[in-house]
């Protein structure tokens, strides 16, 4: 392996962006990931089955390698979520807006995660997808209310949050998701680590 190849691979590694995709079971996490893979890796859409354990997908975008960690949301798996928190740049939390009876459960699980922000990392950004809006009557009003409630709730926790309504089957609302994931504070890991070292 030549030196230039090694340097190139190291640069790509430094520009890795780790995105943890979490939410309750059947919220549409894997469908979101499937849409991303179909658009940015030209993969065929597939029949989605519940994720048992986790799946990792690497997607190139804007000179970054975005690692999407799709973690199962069943209640039996949730106690193990924090095993995946280390070095996470973005938490993508997916909520099923059509399952009104589970919204409180979803919010409580998100709050539980945020109580572990020392593990998740205080620089980790939070993006909440209000998914399955196509199944909700008066979706715009419902999602606006949910967005307002979430922002108010998480501002009390001093957590910066981005919310967006989506339909993962068609990709509506996901068009700029990857830009949001790598944008802003998702900087070169090598630069970030060297900065931290210089400060310490």
TrEMBL record:
An example molecular function term from Gene Ontology annotations: metal ion binding
GO biological process: protein folding; tubulin complex assembly
Database matches in Pfam families: Arf (PF00025)
Sorted UniProt keywords: GTP-binding, Magnesium, Metal-binding, Nucleotide-binding
Binding locations of GTP: 23-30, 73, 131-134
InterPro entries associated with the record: ARL2/3, P-loop_NTPase, Small_GTP-bd, Small_GTPase_ARF/SAR
Binding site for Mg(2+): 30, 51
Keyword tRNA processing: no
Domain of life, per lineage: Eukaryota
Protein name per the record: LALA0S02e04588g1_1
């Amino acid at each position: 392996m030549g030196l230039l190849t090694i340097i190139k691979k190291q640069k790509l590694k430094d520009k890795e962006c780790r995105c943890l995709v979490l939410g309750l079971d059947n919220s549409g996490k894997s469908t979101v990931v499937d849409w991303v893979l179909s658009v940015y890796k030209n993969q065929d859409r597939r029949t989605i089955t519940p994720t048992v354990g986790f799946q990792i997908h690497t997607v190139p975008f804007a000179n970054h390698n975005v690692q999407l960690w799709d973690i199962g949301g069943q209640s039996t798996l949730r106690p193990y979520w924090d095993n995946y928190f280390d070095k996470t740049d973005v938490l993508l939390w997916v909520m099923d807006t059509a399952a009104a009876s589970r919204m409180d459960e979803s919010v409580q699980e998100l709050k539980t995660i945020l109580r572990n922000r020392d593990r998740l990392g205080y620089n980790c950004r939070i993006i909440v997808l209000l998914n399955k809006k196509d199944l909700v009557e008066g979706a715009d009003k419902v999602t606006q209310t949910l967005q307002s409630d979430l922002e108010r709730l998480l501002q009390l926790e001093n957590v910066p949050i981005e919310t967006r309504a989506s339909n993962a089957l068609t990709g509506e609302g996901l068009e700029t998701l990857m830009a949001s994931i790598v944008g802003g504070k998702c900087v070169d890991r090598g630069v970030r680590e060297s900065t931290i070292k210089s400060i310490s």
